[in-house]
Write a sequence for this structure.
DNA sequence: AAATGAAACAACCGCCATGCG
DNA sequence: TCGCATGGCGGTTGTTTCATT
């Protein structure tokens, strides 16, 4: 047990990030990049653990993120990818530029799962529900059209009750999914080419950064940005000064 | 208008894989 | 080869927002 925790719990702030913290983190990373997440909070003057900083950056502050709901096409791609990859959200996210694993995971759990259930498709196996033995015995309405009550049944039977504990995070091997028919998705399988935007490789230098993503890449993404515009990255001087500390 | 419940989203936790000394 | 530090991932929980009664 001599292992050092990722962050000492004392003096480490938790909970929602404030606009001020966001600004500090953004400014620091744009100025210095992140060589080592563990060091970032200290250098940036944040009372957070490195893990929290990394998460905040990758899931919310990263300038190349798309905000807003997934489009129909994206949603379909997620479904196809999930059929193939299972709950490997990071792999799935890698195929959707500008989307994070957390975002996709949330969207899956809140939207897509229900949508599939309504369609009579098991979100875990991607098989039609009425073709699943464990469900057939329960002779309840298989109805793709019926939803509400089915949702509840399936969440206990389809998701947990299907001996998927081990497969849960692994792909249902070569299942008869729809992806192979999809030219776009199909191409993804053949090569593991990440569909990553060029902008993902954004420069750490603020000037270069601006030239790539524009002066206010996060404009409108959240309230703090309004303040942020007034603030101005360059005026903050947090980066270099923080390092000197 | 207030209370309650549901949905959506953000963040945390614990585990695992990898790199390095 | 081993042990530790770190980053990353997936699951889960907490908080906020929205809808309904």
């Amino acid at each position: 047990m001599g292992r050092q925790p990722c962050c000492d719990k004392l003096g480490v702030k938790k909970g929602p990030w404030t606009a001020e913290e966001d600004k500090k983190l953004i400014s620091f990373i744009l100025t210095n990049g992140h060589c080592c997440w563990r060091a970032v909070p200290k250098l940036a003057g944040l009372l957070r653990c490195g893990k929290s900083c990394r998460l905040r950056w990758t899931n919310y502050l990263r300038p190349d993120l798309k905000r807003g709901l997934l489009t129909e096409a994206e949603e379909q791609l997620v479904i196809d990818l999930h059929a193939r990859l299972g709950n490997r959200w990071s792999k799935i996210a890698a195929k959707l530029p500008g989307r994070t694993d957390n975002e996709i995971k949330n969207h899956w759990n809140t939207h897509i799962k229900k949508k599939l259930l309504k369609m009579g498709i098991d979100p875990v196996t991607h098989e039609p529900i009425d073709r699943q033995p464990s469900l057939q015995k329960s002779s309840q309405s298989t109805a793709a059209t019926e939803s509400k009550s089915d949702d509840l049944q399936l969440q206990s039977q389809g998701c947990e009750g299907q001996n998927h504990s081990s497969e849960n995070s692994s792909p249902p091997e070569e299942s008869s999914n729809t992806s192979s028919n999809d030219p776009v998705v199909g191409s993804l399988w053949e090569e593991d080419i990440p569909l990553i935007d060029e902008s993902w490789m954004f420069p750490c230098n603020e000037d270069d950064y601006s030239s790539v993503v524009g002066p206010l890449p996060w404009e409108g993404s959240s309230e703090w940005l309004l303040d942020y515009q007034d603030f101005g990255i360059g005026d903050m001087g947090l980066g270099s000064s923080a390092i000197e500390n």
Summary: Residues 19-64+203-244 of chain A form one domain.
